[in-house]
Design brief:
A: alpha/beta; 5-stranded mixed β-sheet; 41% helix; flat; B: Beta-carbonic Anhydrase, Chain A; 21% strand; extended
Chain lengths: 197, 178
Amino acid sequence: MVSIKNVIIIIISMFVIQCFYTDSKRVVLAEPESEKKHFFSRDESGEIKYEHFFEGKKRWCETMVINCSDFRFARATQKFINENLGYKGDYDYFSIPGSIRNMLDKETRKLVMDTFGISVRLHHVKRVVIIAHEDCIGYGGEETFRNSEEEYNKIVKDMKKARRLMRFRFRDLSIYLFYGRIINDTDVKKVEYEQIL
Amino acid sequence: MRHFSKILYISFAVIAFSGCYGKEELLLNNTKTIVPLYKGEEKSDCDTLVITCIDYRFAFANQEFLNKKLEIEGNYDHISIPGSIYNLVNPSTREIVFSKITKFVNFHLTKRIVIIGHRDCGGYGGSSAFGSEIAEYVYLTTDLKKAKQIIIEKYPTLQIDLYLETLTKEGIQFEKIK
């Protein structure tokens, strides 16, 4: 027979695990449908209205973007987030060398997780966009890999691992992954962002 | 029946971890999106390193300020962490942050560092942590100057610019600190 003691221990241990690893205890306020359609900080033409930030804390920002610091991708990434994804004026912009590489290192994991926690607790973030790219300094550049396929596989694997770690610590967040590449087919250079499911 | 409790433990562990796996839905229509690069972004080195805070109210204004006012579009590395230089001034985390800065200065041969702090910063505990506006201003500016000292001790040749931004109803004000 299963003793009652064992069952109690299991329930308590589950409770303790939940308490320690769940950081996103937020209260979701009921919002009317009409307010959901456009962003709080922007008017209809898409310009940011700074007055809205003073109208009390009715709504916080929805998105957290974690990006690499590299200058070659900076402008393209800004355009991608502001225009393609349409999060202009509504995202916390994290930019750290090697993006999520720091989260997998044991030395820096605690600091990085705590800084993400600030965003989740203070700004009540609901979705996370992680952007990694090829030839990243955080990984030591292109030279550390034999070919671009190996590099792609390694970085995608790391991103998925980071997503698991984040989901374990912050429940109820949707986490989207993107991988950036520079394409040189014609005279004009382009950056391609591929979403990883 | 002796192993029943073990099975229970394992099944609970599986439930606890299973939420961490799984895919996400598509954000845009296609998996691949192409964004054209701007002119003058084909260099291998860049001159400037920018350190800012993550705050969503200032994120877009920072980009506009850097691209249009300072005119360093496509020519800067951007480190963005909560509290901007809070973790650099704080002795317990200084080494980690400084190692990131040295990486950029050595790799991209940086000549100039721009540090942008702001009022009502979540990394410092918000405006309410200071008591008055003057106290907040003095504390933030001394922290910025401290960060400047810390970097100059190691890299005396770098040019370091400090800015403090304030949120107003019309927009964001940038103030240069000397």
